[in-house]
Amino acid sequence: MTGGLVTFGETMALFTPPTVGRLRHAGSLMLGIGGAESNVAIGVARLGLPAAWFGRVGADELGETVLTRIRGEGVDVDAAVRDSEVPTSLMIKERPQPGIARVTYYRQDGPGARLRPSDVDESVLRGAQILHLTGITPALSDSACETVRASVELARTLGVLVSLDVNYRAALWPAERATPVLRELVRHCDVLFAGDDEAELLGVTGAPEVQARRLAGLGPREVVIKLGARGAVGWVDGAPVAVDALPVEAIDAVGAGDAFVAGYLAELMSGEPVTERLATAAACGACAVSVPGDWEGFPHRDELSLLTSRHGTVIR
Q1: Residue 129 maps to which CATH number?
Q2: What is the pLDDT of residues 154-170, one digit of tens each?
């Protein structure tokens, strides 16, 4: 792949009841896919930039579902590995009450935990603009963590920017184990995304604006603190930045942070100034929360203006 974004991690088969209520009362489940890294790749591809995702899936129908869905969104998955020794991991997302989502994972010792440094194909990364990582992958296993470290080292050697979304998952690893690993990754990344609570996990306290500046002092040249409905603040190239969230009715907040990251990185690769990067990121996040699903609501380029230009409910 020439130019664009490369990312990797574990994408799972996603089962969701079609209606609000407890899972035990569901008569059927909808089949989809979900994974933070592939979400970002899909978001970037929808905005017209090249994107590639790789990882491990089971050599089974759910694994083929994962690859088919990602490929169908225009993302290159040729470097993905089909692992015949373990089944594809699962996640179940239910909405027990309106506006509340509960996610359960079945991924222990799954394909993502079997990632290894040899899975990082130099030919895929060579020529890319950005390698995007999350704090989820190093939490999966020691070998997955080593794979992340190896990819960062290779990216630095090839002159590829490294992007990191902290994406801390307490269910995967405790804070005392996560913090030193994540701080190490922060020191070696160029672009950092974190929530204000995740900044505290990294040992940085204060108002979000202060957190962004202090995190930039650890190494990244661009830091964005995602604040959900409160927008985002950051420290980019030695100066503070901020953007308000767009007012929308939130239907499903899962995936909104990935949409935000995708919008920001797509505009970064396009050479847009930070104000445009943040505006697109905010619009992508707003689109994502307006639609059920982890990534289904991510906008295409020509849909970005819909949230700010609507004068009614019918588009003709």
Answers
A1: 3.40.1190.20
A2: 999 999 999 999 999 99
